[in-house]
Design brief:
Layout lengths: L5 E5 L5 E5 L3 H40 L6 H17 L4 H24 L4 H9 L8
Antiparallel strand pairs: 1-2
Protein name: Chorismate mutase family protein
InterPro entries: Chorismate_II_sf (IPR036263), Chorismate_mutase-related (IPR051331), CM_dom_sf (IPR036979), CM_II_prokaryot (IPR002701), Isochorismate_pyruvate-lyase (IPR008241)
Keywords: Isomerase
Length: about 140
Amino acid sequence: MADFQHSTGTDAHGEIAQTHDRTPGDDLEKFRRQLDAIDATLLETVRERLLLCLQIGEWKRTSHVPMMQPSRVHVVQERARQFARQHNLSPEFFSSLYELLIAETCRLEDLVIDGPEANVENVRESVGPRSGLTR
């Protein structure tokens, strides 16, 4: 039995119409395209978050505010865990995900806050190409 069947007939205009029976591989490719689109959105959202955190780092630098804000970190992590619980997902996974995001945010903010002012543009470029999000 073939996984892919091909048949011909005529459509309403008398043109030869070709139909293809769907295969499990077609469904898998459709799912993969959907995942790819979601991943592209996720990655761009992470990049936007990092760019915003660079702006926050610049503000902290000029305002002489310490990089680490433990109460804010706690709020962000708890919000992620609560989101997971509300959606019947793993709070541990979301906690781990946000630990990674926060660690990268702290690394970038440290570079901005503690480095020379000229370093800010280099750090911004390391996050990605310039976009409307940079200033």
